[in-house]
Every structure is written in C-alpha cells, then in structure tokens.
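Late entry, evening session. Most of the bench is empty. Finally got around to the prediction I had been postponing all week. Sequence below, unchanged from the version circulated by S.P.
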Amino acid sequence: MFRWGFIGEFRADNGSPFGDPSRQALSDLNLHLIALGIRVKLNPPRSPIKNAKVERNQGTTARWADPKTCADYLDLQTKLNQAVEDQRDNYATRTCAGMTRAEKYPQLFCNPKQFHPADFEVSRVFKQLGKGTWERKVSAQGAVTLFTQSYQVGRKHKNTTVTASFCPLNQNWIFKNRKGDILQTSPAKYLLEKFNFSFSTCQ
C-alpha cells in the first residue's frame, strides 16, 4: 500500500493469514487491517468462484514462477516478482483492449490514495467485535478459549456450550448460557495488550 495506495476493501479466502479456517474467530491480521480501516471480505468455504479473477491471476503467477523449479525461497521470490512485473508491464491483454495493465491504468502509479499507518484506530476493532457472537464449549476445568486466550467461566458449567460477545464500551467479554443468562464477564486484556503493541509498531 505504500507503493500503490490505500486499499479500503479486498476479498480473501477464509484461510490463514486473513481468515480463520475454523471460522471460530478473526485472524490477527484481519483485526489489524480492520484497525487501519480496511475491510476484508472473506469468501465462503470452498468457493473460489467468489474471487475468480484473483484465483486465475494466482494460477498464472504460479505457472510463470514455476515454484517447483526454484532453488530456495529467495529464488522463488525473485521469480514471483518477475512474473508480477511481466503481467503488469509487459503482457497485453484482450480485456485491456490490447494494452498492458500498466498502460490501461496509469493512474495507479500516482499512488492516488496515500496509505497512512498512523490512521490505526483500535476502536474500529472493538466496534467490529461487538457485532459478533462466538460459541464455545466449556472445558472440564471450566474454561473456554477465545482469540487464543483462556477465560474462566466456572467448573459448574463444564461441558456446556456458551456464547461470548464483546462489549466495545468496557472492552469486556460477556459469556452467557443458552438461556441468555450472564455467567461471567472478563476484561479482554489480551486484545488490549496486543493492539497497544500493534499501534506502537505502526508509528
């Protein structure tokens, strides 16, 4: 984005690093992008047709770079860079009326919308988390795991299913049983610490 400009939205599959294959949480990278004001639209599982242009582009890049012939990671990166440059600057396409992509879209080289990492706002993450609920099964020790962090719900609720929701105002996780009764409220310390660190690395 420093080179090509800010991207307000893009689509990705539900695998790592943008998604969570288990669909039980949002990935760290996804949350970080949300804080920057970027929306990640995740495809439904096993639905590459939802992002057909990108899938075809990745297939072409893979064929041109030919990873199986690469000596090592650096060799692969060099070939990937060359493949991307060829597709953009040297390969004329019918969809671009016989021009290269660089010729068809010269405005992209002007970086039309500057990317400012200091625009990182953790409140965007809290707002997004506040829209969801997550089901968890309570362990024999009375705990659940949420966004890689363990939270104690209570041994008396072991082996039951609870829902977790996030309160953006207090930055707390609220755990409820199937009836909607509140079982436990826990500060989301892990998220606060994580995003304080993320924000400092953006400066």
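Two things to note before I forget:
The CA atoms of residues 135 and 163 lie 4 Å apart.
Residues 198-203 have pLDDT under 50 and may be disordered.
Will write this up properly tomorrow.
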